[in-house]
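lol ok so funny story. i was supposed to be doing the assay writeup but got distracted and ended up predicting the structure for this chain instead. priorities right. anyway since i did it might as well share w the group, maybe its usefull for someone
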Amino acid sequence: MSRSRRAGTNAIQLFLILAGFVLLAYYLTVSLTSRDFLWFVRRFQDEAARIVVYQSGQAAEYLPGQPGYDELASAVKTSLAEGFARLTSTGFSAQTLQDAYAQQVTLEVFFAQPIEIHTWFPTGRTTQVLFPVTGPHAEPPIVLLGDKGKYRAGAPVLNSNEPILEALEALGVDWQLPAD
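and the output, tada:
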């Protein structure tokens, strides 16, 4: 074997080892910071214990087995399974949360156990999620993650909330903003 061919093979091996090391370092860094070794898996399977739709101060509760529950639960699963585009610094004050309940269309979902959301950022203990559908926090489509009646700042932006919008529309919830 000639020296130049061996040198070329060594360069390729070095490149492959370096690339493998960089990928492993990236994977481990994200896995450790998110506390989730499957952060790259896009799926969401947890079942909602209760779903509440707020529309202009009126609350409609949907429980398993009731009409509308399956459509909403499926839409929530699909939207969360489609993943997240990015994180924001958005958080709701007590007044903003009250406005979301009283003046806007908001979807709130409660889970009996902490849910598992596979993502590249830590989600903490999450037993409830809130989707602002109308109002100042509807675009981009964020979801607030919370536990025990409180929501954390740093709401992620959904890749898509279209399944939720379609389910609400199918249930007769008017979430569309009036044309200017």
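Strands lie at 50-55, 58-62, 84-87, 105-110, 128-132, 144-147, 150-151, 156-158. The mean pLDDT is 85.
back to the writeup now i swear
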